[in-house]
Amino acid sequence: MTEPKPFGVYVHWPFCMAKCPYCDFNSHVRHGGIEEERFLAAYLRELDSFAGFAPGRTVSSIFFGGGTPSLMGPKTVTAILDHIAELWVIAPDAEITLEANPTSVEAEHFTGYASAGVNRLSLGVQALDDQSLKSLGRLHTADEALRALDLAKRNFGRVSFDLIYAREGQSVAQWRSELKEALRHAADHLSLYQLTIEPGTMFAARHEAGTLRVPDGSLAREFYLLTQELCEAAGLPAYEISNHARPGSESRHNLIYWRGHDYAGVGAGAHSRITMDGKRRALSAIKSPEAWREAVEASGHGLESDEGLSAAESADEYLLMGLRLAEGIDLERLQAMSGKAPRSETMAALAAQGLVRRRGERLTATPSGRLVLERIILELAA
Ligand SMILES: C[S@@+](CC[C@H](N)C(=O)[O-])C[C@H]1O[C@@H](n2cnc3c(N)ncnc32)[C@H](O)[C@@H]1O
Ligand code: SF4
What we know:
By secondary structure, this protein is α/β, with parallel strands linked by helices. It contains 16 helices and 15 strands. It starts with 6 loop residues before the first strand and ends with a helix. The strands form three sheets. The chain has a nine-stranded mixed beta sheet with strand order 7-8-6-5-4-3-2-1-9, with helices on both faces. The protein has a three-stranded antiparallel beta sheet with strand order 10-11-12. The model has no long low-confidence stretch (mean pLDDT 95). The radius of gyration is 21 Å and the shape is globular. Iron/sulfur cluster is lined by residues 16, 19-20, 23, 25, 27, 66-68, 101, 124.
């Protein structure tokens, strides 16, 4: 029997205790609290709609992302997982991840999440010194983060944590020692993101005003290459631009996105890619949490757009996502999707510059290539 194609379910929890000044995720602060039960009812209803869009699939991974899903009560997580199990078959070895912030309040939820069936925790540590955490607007100390990490390791079979590097005032030498410390604490996975100045954030305003300086250009490249080198030496090589894992411990959920498989995303602002009647569709939900909930209450889903993707659009997406991965893309699959493959001369020219590598039908971007991926994709798609 052939294995069913991977299929993921993403659950977006759009609330946070405070808005971090660098973050442009769909996350909102509600000082007056939220009606968690009413939101739960909306998640269950929207899941019903998605079961209609993607019937009979086997769920290979589930991901609670945010926002801050660790603000959800364990009962809410249990009810959502139980409902997913009623609507689809969940594979016996399914990866079930929850993204958590490492404050002590949230850490109290860990045992409840594990009992609900969560088997992988992804913790937003961000930095290992208190001064940096303060400038990033975080509500936890480094010590609290390490204690939460310890607790996570005791409660979940698989644990990842996130750090942001190339921060304001950070030197390469400081990052070297911070990353070495992180690697001593690492379980099976690390997400290491270079600080990005996202338009519309507080950091973007400060950056424009000249009061926030961050490493860029050749210095940013130095940070990136050092990160690759240290992680590789520690046995957690990069399998994607910002993601490092012990071989076999890659995030199966995120691989679904990068390998171009189907996923259903529920919650405010969530995106989905679902193949219906042989055609791939791109769906996205209303971003405002309350407007999303009201739409679900009125019509069963909170979608604001649903578009069919053309063969060329699907192929471009596969190229864009697949080249982020160390394993790269399959040129035959690309050809089958769109009827055209990148020109051999273009691939050869990029290979001569040390930016891509071709082995048979597999095309990968080299670590230097992954730094200029946009340029490579533009040339390959031309
Ligand atoms: C959905 S977010 C946050 C999850 C969780 N709420 C937290 O803050 O820990 C996922 C990750 O994206 C990263 N991130 C968010 N904005 C970023 C930015 N502007 N530059 C680099 N990394 C960023 C952070 O490391 C964060 O943990
Ligand atoms: S980084 Fe995490 S906690 Fe901070 S605003 Fe974004 S989603 Fe919320």
